[in-house]
Amino acid sequence: MPQSLDDQYSLGDSIVDMGGGDGIDDPVQDNRPRILIMGLRRSGKSSIQKVVFHSMNANDTLFLESTNIIIKEDFQSFIDFHVWDFPGQLDFFDPTFDTNAIFGEYGALIFVIDAQDDYMEALTRLHDTVTRAYRVNPNLFFEVFIHKVDALSDEYKIETQRDIHQRTTDELADFGLEKVSLGFHLTSIYDRSIFEAFSKVIQKLIPQLPTLENLLNILCANSGIEKAFLFDINSKIYIATDSSPVDIQSYEICSEMIDVIFDISEIYSKRTSTRNDSGMSQSIKSAIQPTTDETASDASSLVRLHNDMVLYLKGVNRFLALVCLIPSDNLEKHGLIDYNFQCFKQAITDVFDLKRLSIERRLEEDIDDDDISI
Amino acid sequence: MSKKVLLMGKSGSGKTSMRSIIFHNYVAKDTRRLGATIDVENSRVRFLGNLVLNLWDCGGQDMFMENYFASQREHIFRNVEVLIYVFDVESRDIEKDMHYYQDCLEAILVNSKNAKVFCLIHKMDLVQEEMRHRVFEARLNELNTRSEPVKITAFATSIWDESLYKAWSSIVHSLIPNVKLLESHLQNFATICEADEAVLFERTTFLVISHCTKMDNTDIHRFSKISNYIKLFKMSCSRAQAQFKSMEIRQADFAAFIDVLTANTYVMVIMSDLSIEPSATKMNISVARKHFEKLEVSHIAR
Q1: Among A20, A293, A299, B277, which residue's Cβ finds the most Cβ atoms within 10 Å?
Q2: Contacts of A62 in chain B (CB under 8 A)
């Protein structure tokens, strides 16, 4: 049965503290994580980027033109990050390209492989990319998206993944690079797998992840919640969930719920909504709509299902929403759960404020240092 | 009460696909698996309980078409309430499509002259977005002249967006006998609830049966969009082994309630006055339930 969260969170100061401590080494400079999307031409890089970050319909990606310059995009969200979309035909190891500038930042490199095609060439390119990038920045996360698997049978999918995994690790081992952190994901833009894969990638880049998980665990345990996801509203990537195992179906239904709620809200809300349906860049959008904060954070929606489960959505802030699966019996103490949500929301705000404060403080210190040296 | 609906058009134009999406809960991409329709496929769809749509999905290969116009002429074209003719917008041989279409109209005029005719310009998703309107206008003009003296209603459709729901909602709307009565009761209901808008959906297809708007909304396609969204969401619910029951949305400036009304309908109520408690609206819906059920029953008795 639900119980009040008051005590847990008031003890929670030490928990909250964990997040701010291990920030990114260099906050003064551009401290945004950078996500590089690479791969051979026509492997689906731009489509992925459009579908995930611009909520483009998967079928409309047919009309996308091939990319021929590096597209850099700021994505403003709970953490700000850059997405760089590289043209496939570009040889970025050309001496004129500054590999240090490209790979030097904190972040992740996503390599997209078209699974419907012969992937030998892609693998050579992948090995090449990984070895070079690793030399520049050993802290980079490497993620391989085995893409366009929607057309493959389940058996063949597993086989392909195994084959690619095997070949890549063998090759890298030959170069003495066993320690490279490599992740493999089967993805397709026609289902949720691409969002799931991106969620995993982003989660690696969030230093506050253990704190967020902890907060979610406490919330779930005390409110009779079966499963909770903290979603980024714009991209439907989940940035954290409680520590119970993720069942892909519950993730799917939660993200579909966000879709349907925001689609309907877009029709009836008189204010401009937070969602972007055009191809307009995220940063421009958020720049011209600074007042949407309230809209999203007041959101509270629920869907009742016939198996006595309730999907409950609560807006946390402009970018984040919490979606929970609650057995309908536990929802009887509606007020208490709402109260717990408020505590949770406050805790999340504190976590992210802490990071901002620490950055500001360091900035101030730097300025002070400068003064002294003068 | 059974109503005969003819679904015709060239082979591969998408007749079976759209029927499967609207009435048999297919997702758009699953229609790739559908094979060609051989001869005529009859399906009876219960719609709104007492109204049964008798769908005749007529395979469009030349051999079958010739057959319909010759030996099966009377069998096919008799007692038709609605003819839906589907055109593939990307078709190479427009002249031939038109030829069959006119043969079809001729047969309809003789055998069931009161039939309503709907033309769907289908697969619009294959046309670039900027071009769609112009292409549709051009086709519509041609169809209008070719259809003389029959008055037709035409829609641009695609299985990949809500346009399909818009077309079918209006087709179905023309088939419901007591739609005026339903409309006036819905009007009352909306006034009592102080709702901005109340919309009645059929339960399994989520096609719009009737709506009542008190507050203007700029989005004219909103009902078919909502049909589409909810239907997709219902399907993903059932994929997760759960059935969709009801939904409540609260945003900063409006609240929406989507709930079961009768055994055959769902209702959506939009409220912008947030000082009205959600439970009051829910109470109104549950009280209205009995009333609308009675309305349906009295209709069967007639």
Answers
A1: A299
A2: none
